[in-house]
TrEMBL record:
InterPro entries: Folylpolyglutamate_synth_CS, Mur-like_cat_sf, Mur_ligase_C, Mur_ligase_C_dom_sf, Mur_ligase_cen, MurD. It comes from Hymenobacter negativus. This is UDP-N-acetylmuramoylalanine--D-glutamate ligase. Cell wall formation. Catalyzes the addition of glutamate to the nucleotide precursor UDP-N-acetylmuramoyl-L-alanine (UMA). NCBIfam families: murD. Residues 315-427 form the Mur ligase C-terminal domain. ATP binds at G108, T109, N110, G111, K112, T113, T114. It catalyses: UDP-N-acetyl-alpha-D-muramoyl-L-alanine + D-glutamate + ATP = UDP-N-acetyl-alpha-D-muramoyl-L-alanyl-D-glutamate + ADP + phosphate + H(+). The gene is murD. Residues 106-293 form the Mur ligase central domain. Keywords: ATP-binding, Cell cycle, Cell division, Cell shape, Cell wall biogenesis/degradation, Cytoplasm, Ligase, Nucleotide-binding, Peptidoglycan synthesis. Its EC number is 6.3.2.9.
Length: 454
């Protein structure tokens, strides 16, 4: 079969290497320049490729196309392929054909990376033979060439799910659905929700669907009656309107029941006090990961031991350090209102909040109540802070503006007293003053470390 790969980053190069390993002829096309390390991999493997263009004649010669998740449906090359009737699939779909490993797949608007890393950590710490793949930056297709794992924990964005058809997770996890990327879905929340719910379409009776019963949009669009798999809803509270598989009985004690509604006495408690994760949304992420670990056969003792040794990805509610009784927390990954809400909600000490950047059409109303009660000062870090100031000037007693991270950290440190938290949770994209959210978070860490060394 002649397979064309569109996009030559992590997923595209992984798919190309797998296609070649399985005996297909392969051609890779990227509309932009290909990063040197990916180009080197393709060259070393002898795979034909082009960059900074899409040659339609070569692409339309494909029997099947594997598409990068970053390419939108409206792209000219995709429209041409659709017109010809060429099958288009995702890297995840392609990889799924060549593995019999059990895939634990995680999606949701917020929290997917944390939940994916935590689930992987729980399983690996218990000695399971497990790989990590997907949106966390590791190609599933490339790992499937050797296919040495019995389990994969896979983070999936809606874009990666869009072109899956036969791919079958063993466990599917849906954390939440809130408006994001709606430009890719005709500005329709329903279309976006249905993209997320594609994760359930091939589940069978051997698998499980773990989902957040507290999430309104999931409840609105999820048709539970049509799913032929074990359904394991979770909630932060012990609700009586639904048979829950997981819920909290106290702040750091959760209860899991893998047969909800059948045996109400089958609940097993897990203590989460050892977890370093901060905030209500991370309690939800922890519930989902623990439920997946329980389905995979882990005992409470194994889970509790692993929770205590978990380190989350950088820039997600990451405790950077403490200076004179003031904690500094880096949440640079919070590029939307929802993520910033989780951060403000999860911290119960007085907050000096550093926010701002490139506004993505943000509506700050959901943050006003939290800001009024928890934020003692707001430091706006952006080129244009007018919208932030309009929203928060009336309710936060001290608001000021800075144009550099060094100034923002210096001002925050000056305003803070022992017991306060300085929180970088920007609520906005980073591209006005920084290369990306990692650069923004890294500069925050450097500024805090410099002050710690003084």
């Amino acid at each position: 079969m002649h397979i064309v790969i569109l996009g030559a980053a992590e997923s595209g190069v992984g798919a190309a290497l797998l296609a070649q390993a399985k005996g297909h002829t392969v051609f890779v096309s990227d509309r932009g320049p290909i990063q040197p390390d990916y180009k080197q991999q393709l060259t070393a493997a002898g795979i034909a490729f082009e960059e900074s263009q899409h040659s339609l004649d070569k692409i339309l010669a494909a029997d099947e196309v594997v598409k990068s998740p970053g390419i939108p449906e409206k792209a000219q090359v995709i429209q041409a392929l659709r017109e010809k009737g060429t099958p288009i699939i995702s890297e995840i779909e392609f990889a799924g054909r060549y593995t019999r490993a059990k895939c634990i797949c995680i999606t949701g608007t917020n929290g997917k990376t944390t939940t994916t890393l935590l689930t992987y950590h729980l399983l690996k710490s218990a000695g399971l033979n497990v790989g990590l793949a997907g949106n966390v930056g590791y190609s599933l297709a490339e790992q499937v060439i050797e296919d040495k794992f019995e389990y994969y924990v896979v983070e999936l964005s809606s874009f990666q799910l869009d072109d899956t058809h036969e791919f079958q997770p063993w466990i599917a996890i849906l954390l939440n659905i809130t408006p994001d990327h709606l430009d890719r879905y005709g500005y329709s929340l329903e279309q976006y929700a249905q993209a997320k719910l594609r994760i359930t379409r091939n589940l069978d009776s051997n698998g499980a669907f773990i989902y957040n019963a507290d999430d309104e949009v999931t409840g609105q669009y999820f048709q539970s009656a049509f799913l032929e798999t074990r359904q394991l809803p979770f909630s932060l509270h012990h609700r009586h309107d639904i048979h829950l598989a997981g819920y909290y009985v106290s702040e750091d004690m959760l209860c899991t029941n893998l047969t909800p509604g059948i045996d109400e006495d089958a609940g097993v408690e897990v203590n989460t006090a050892g977890s370093p994760l901060i905030g209500q949304h991370n309690r939800q992420n922890t519930l989902a990961a623990v439920l997946a670990a329980r389905v995979a056969g882990l005992e409470p003792e194994q889970i509790e031991a692993a929770l205590a040794t978990f380190h989350n990805a950088d820039h997600r509610l990451q405790l950077v350090g403490e200076i004179k009784g003031v904690r500094f927390i880096n949440d640079s990954k919070a590029t939307n209102v929802e993520a910033a809400w989780y951060a403000l909600d999860g911290i119960h000490q007085p907050i000096i909040w550093i926010a701002g950047g490139t506004d993505k059409g943000n509506d700050y109303r959901s943050l006003l109540n939290l800001a009024e009660h928890r934020v003692k000062a707001l430091i706006c870090l952006g080129v244009d802070n007018a919208k932030l100031r309009t929203a928060f000037d009336p309710i936060v007693s001290h608001v000021e503006e800075t144009q550099s991270m060094a100034d923002a950290v210096a001002r925050a440190a000056a305003l803070a007293v022992p017991g306060d938290v300085v929180l970088l949770s920007p609520c906005c994209a980073s591209f006005d003053l920084f290369k990306n959210y990692e650069d923004r978070g890294q500069q925050f860490i450097q500024c805090v470390k410099q002050r710690m060394g003084e």
